[in-house]
Amino acid sequence: MAGHEVIARAGGGVQSVERAFALLETMAAAGGTMGLSGLAAASGLPLPTIHRLVRTLVTLGYVRQQPSREYALGPRLIRLGDGASRLIGVWARPHLARLVAELGESANLALLDGSEVVYVAQVPGRHAMRMFTEVGRRVSPHCTAVGKALLAQMDREQVADVLSRTDLVAHTEHTITDRGAYLRELGRVRARGYAVDEGELELGVRCVAVALVGGPARAALSVSGPTTRMTDELLERAVPHLRAAATALAAELDQAGGSAAG
């Protein structure tokens, strides 16, 4: 078996599978496209090993080769991503329901997908007039509290990459459309640990969001409602509840990932 690519690990894992997923995660972290030399530098694996793994992933549809000879994440990953998003939404629902019970307003879970924010779960608020966000809705990160919370967790280069693919469109008179002003807003989000949407996507709607830290996906929880009810007092009360829910959900997702790996 010496020299065979599939090597059983002491912990029961298979080395080639671990390496293949590590390459996919490396490509995702780099924006989805990399060359073989970049993958070799990032992974520390020999080029022949990377080439064999990548060609297998291409054959399976999880990676595709670009005209530039670089490799990009492939379309079959979309199905896996959709399934994983739905599962994360299922895990999040009890936490969202508790937020609604504690605060009365609608609670949401959103993920960062490329340069867009996608809502993957919501529990509606208790009021007759409440905020409703369709699961699956995609929005720009520049005009949402969840988007600000997510980008505030990223380094300068990652933020620049997302913004390079984002049109800073004015949805309302309150939308931040200046790149410098938006970067300063992200600094304020980092400093206080939560983000606020002050009617920047929809007039009359206020939202507060907290990002999950340390989880397997870039995700954020939010509470939203009409400005008349989302007062400063309610926002101040919401933040610790959001932080507790985000911490608990991130721990559950990490544990689930660890159990699957074990």
What is the helical fraction, as a range of percent? Answer: 40-55%
Overall number of strands:
9
Give the count of helical stretches.
8
Give the SSE string. Answer: HEHHEEHEEEHHHEEEH
Radius of gyration: 20 Å
* CATH topology name of the largest domain: Beta-Lactamase
The quaternary structure here is single chain
Strand content: 15-25%
Low-confidence stretches: 1-12, 258-262
Secondary-structure arrangement, i.e. CATH architecture of the largest domain: 2-Layer Sandwich
- Inertia-based shape: elongated
Strands across the major sheet, in which order? 6-5-4-9-8-7
Write down the overall mean pLDDT.
84
CATH homologous superfamily label of the largest domain: GAF domain
The major β-sheet equals: 6 strands, antiparallel
N→C terminal distance: 24 Å
Q: What would you call the structural class?
A: alpha+beta
Count of domain modules: 2
The CATH class of the largest domain: Alpha Beta
Fold and architecture overview:
The chain contains eight helices and nine strands. 48% of the residues lie in helices and 17% in strands. The strands form two sheets. Strands 6-5-4-9-8-7 form a six-stranded antiparallel beta sheet, with helices on both faces. The chain has helices at 15-29, 36-43, 47-60, 76-103, 145-151, 156-164, 179-192, 232-261, and strands at residues 33-34, 63-65, 71-73, 106-113, 116-123, 138-139, 195-198, 205-211, 219-226. The protein has 262 residues and is an alpha+beta fold.
